[in-house]
Amino acid sequence: MAKKKAASKRKADSNQENGSHLRLHAEQQFAAELEALAEIDERQRPPGWKLSPWAVKLYLLGGTLENGFEVTPKYVGRPRLMEIAIATLATDRALLLYGVPGTAKSWVSEHLAAAISGQSTLLIQGTAGTDESALRYGWNYARLLAEGPARDALVESPMMVAMESGSIARVEELTRIPSETQDTLITILSEKSLPVPELNTEVQAVKGFNVIATANNRDKGVNELSSALMRRFNTVVLPVPDRLDDEISIVSQRASQLGRALELPAEIPALQEIQRVVTIFRELRSGMTEDGKTKLKSPSGTLSTAEAISVVSNGMAMSAFYGDGELKADDLMSSLIGAVVKDPVQDQIVWQEYLQTVVKERDDWKDLYRASRDFSG
């Protein structure tokens, strides 16, 4: 009990200290949980890890500790996927989290790094403009001109810092990085070293170092990974939640967290409203109603769980500032249509057909249908 109270106090102190920040890193937001797990974790830890694989899994999936301390779930889905991901990072293979947009790849990546290394900020954001210096190192050109090539003139990348400190480096949207830049990772992942030829030296990775990369297959302009680079990764595909209840739980939890973080003066969304949003997304995504009786056309967008969270969060803001604080159909509709209708022609047809054949026919969805008519009118 004393340990639980101490952890709760640490969490309250941390929240007060970071109360002005818009978004906290995982290791800050869940510091009390990480500390509570570290205190009871007596299992073997891989070299350089802050927690054992058992504790990392418990941190991700949630549960109750022996002292009664509650660990909130960070990932709702198949436990086996998290076991594979964690076990991979304990080997010399890097981890690639793959899937359609909005399946919590970045979220899982951040929490894995926080639990294993105690920090999730060694991040490289992949874009079409990402060059080798983002993965290797750069130079402070003022010092380079004044002093010549020297270690003090070198600007370390997050990858280099991770190698030197034995931490997890994160690479977001790996397939958006140009292919020639991607291949910079081959030497790092295979040799566990980063050559610095200008200084005739190299940086060798300390135990605990590894890489988590994320990628999706829906972006335009995707740069496929070379077979040489793919061999250095163990790929874990994160799917869209299989069960309706799982997806509702994810959306409810994250929308509530965002509402508190943004200090929205709105009530916690009713499960009924969240269920309707999630049901709409799942039916349009699969091209079939939940009861399997009606076939539907699917829109061009992904309609991911992350987008459902955004729809509910935006609805909370609408209800807080322009309503009575209680989430209603009118508050959801603008964001809902915006999520579904990406193509103003084809997606609009899909949405109108769905309204007429599904929403209009459901007795407890009449308010959604009226809200859609009011919005379009």
**What would you call the quaternary organization?**
single chain
Q: What topology, given as strand order, has the largest sheet?
A: 4-7-10-3-11
Please, how many helices? 18
- Arithmetic mean pLDDT: 89
Here the CATH topology of the largest domain equals Rossmann fold
Low-confidence parts lasting 5 or more residues at pLDDT below 50?
none
Q: Please name the CATH architecture of the largest domain.
A: 3-Layer(aba) Sandwich
Calculate Rg over CA atoms: 23 Å
What would CATH call the class of the largest domain? Answer: Alpha Beta
Tell the overall outline.
globular
For the sheet with most strands, the description reads:
5 strands, parallel
The secondary-structure class comes to: alpha/beta
Strand proportion: 5-15%
CATH homologous superfamily name of the largest domain?
P-loop containing nucleotide triphosphate hydrolases
Number of domain modules: 2
Distance between the termini: 58 Å
H/E series, N to C?
HHHHEEHEHEHEHEHEHHEEEHEHHHHHH
Structure description:
By secondary structure, this protein is α/β, with parallel strands linked by helices. The chain has two domains: 2-237, P-loop containing nucleotide triphosphate hydrolases (Rossmann fold, 3-Layer(aba) Sandwich), CATH 3.40.50; 244-376. It has helices at 2-17, 26-29, 31-40, 53-61, 79-89, 105-117, 132-135, 141-147, 158-165, 179-182, 184-191, 227-230, 244-261, 271-286, 305-322, 329-340, 346-359, 366-376, and strands spanning 63-64, 70-71, 94-98, 123-125, 137-139, 154-156, 168-172, 193-196, 201-204, 210-215, 233-237. The strands form four sheets. It has a five-stranded parallel beta sheet with strand order 4-7-10-3-11. A two-stranded antiparallel sheet has the order 1-2. The chain has a two-stranded antiparallel sheet with strand order 5-6. A hairpin with a 5-residue loop joins strand 1 and strand 2 (70-71). It is globular and about 75 Å long. The protein starts with a helix and ends with a helix.
